[in-house]
Amino acid sequence: MIVAEQKPLPEIRRMISPYDRVLIVGCGTCMTVCDAGGEREVAFLHDALRMAQSKDGKETHHFLEATLKRQCEPEFLQMLVDKTSDVDVILSLGCGIGVQAIAERFPDTPVLPGVNTCFMGISREQGVWDERCAACGECRLEDTAGICPVTRCTKGILNGPCAGAKNGKCEANKDMDCAWILIYKRLERLGQLERMRRYYPMRNFRAVPRPRRLVKTPVAIGEDNG
Amino acid sequence: MANSLFEEKLYSGEFVVTTEVGPPKGADVSEMVHHIDVLKDKVDAINVTDHQSSVMRFPSLGGCLIVKELGGEPILQMTCRDRNRLALQADLLLAYSRSIVNVLCLTGDSIDVGDHRDAKPVFDSDSVQLLKMIRTMESGKDIGGNDLKGIPKFCLGASVHPEADLIEPQLIKFEKKVAAGAQFFQTQGIFEVASLRRFMQYASQFDIKVLAGIIVLASARMAKYMNDNVPGIIVPQTTIDELASVEKGKGRQKGIDIAARLIRTIKEENLSHGIHIMAVGNESVVPDILEAAEVEVARY
Questions:
Q1: Which of A144, A204, B143, B229 is 20 to 30 A away from residue B30, measured at CA?
Q2: CB contact, 8 Å: A203 with chain B?
Q3: Domain containing B108: what range?
């Protein structure tokens, strides 16, 4: 899933300051799971903004709430159509994709990002998430025992560890495992060390020209089965 | 025919001695010039480091030009941290055009250990890919497959860490570097003769030259600092204790003694093809170490 962190309240207050009517929009998918912008966080943020405003006494924003199942899909955004006519700005607690989907769908309404989108990752424990995929467009997990060196090695190198690790930890961060030592140990366990001995050429960055577009070619079932 | 005096020395069968200088933080090169002057006739070649520890400095290539100007033999340290494949190839062409042909191919330290931690880490290639890249250029094509007008030729080196706390993955990478075209290896700092002996027993099956890395320590505090802060360096407790055993102010001499003792053993037991002395900011002690170790370099 996509992992994000809600922006600090002062930054959000600064962003909304020019606008009167603010629609806070949550997202029911990744942002809900990572506690950054689901229905609950929308309600909390709404309360926090109201309280800050009443303490301050200077501002008089009006807030509306809505949480969509997914901000990144046009059909769900349809549900905002009625609401946008009554607001001056949309404060999206969706990831960067959600924010941009809203901007594309509602060209006349300003949209503000309420979270900092961080990475694609997994939940490690309550309140801790770890990055796992860099969307490099050329997945090699088959050769690296299911551990991604592009994402988990701070240098993203492909031919084995640098010489910087100590006690299995990365030179860039003593709390972070060296990805290549993890890969080595798991390949050894799986009896696949020969995969680490192969030479991996430089990455093809044409696989990730920004911005990327994926056009899926329909494949008939059974087509490739000989 | 050898590409350089250093390459000639590598294959001469004689004991090879290299050391390194770190370029300055700033445009005043006088101290580096002084170090090069002191060292150039005492060693076979001088490495010039490439933003060592990811600290922004005067460039390695510029330092190598100065080594050349002063009549020394440079080894260009080249990391993949700050340049993509276009910039690396371009710098290699510049190096070759100025007769800088000894290149040590390194991945480079992480941006996070340096003094520009917000910078974008490049790592378009790694050390193995850099070696391959250079060998490709020597075939007359850039790595985009386009013809080069004027074909460069280099003497290529890489690094290896015989005292890594998990050695096997290091050796796998070492073999990839050999296959990619590394001719010589300058090892990370060696502190225990036994680990070098073990490594050389294994490495002798490959057609490469190994220069054992000697880090010159000046105090127990410095050793502990390096253990905590310098990627990969693991100074053993026995060495730290030995440095701590001398009275204040004598640490520097003790460091020289330890380095010289190690070099003497390596030479007497014929453990490697040579040594690479890393004095880490204390370059002026290198001649003292060589004298104490009774190593003399016949400069061509």
A1: B229
A2: yes
A3: 5-217+271-292
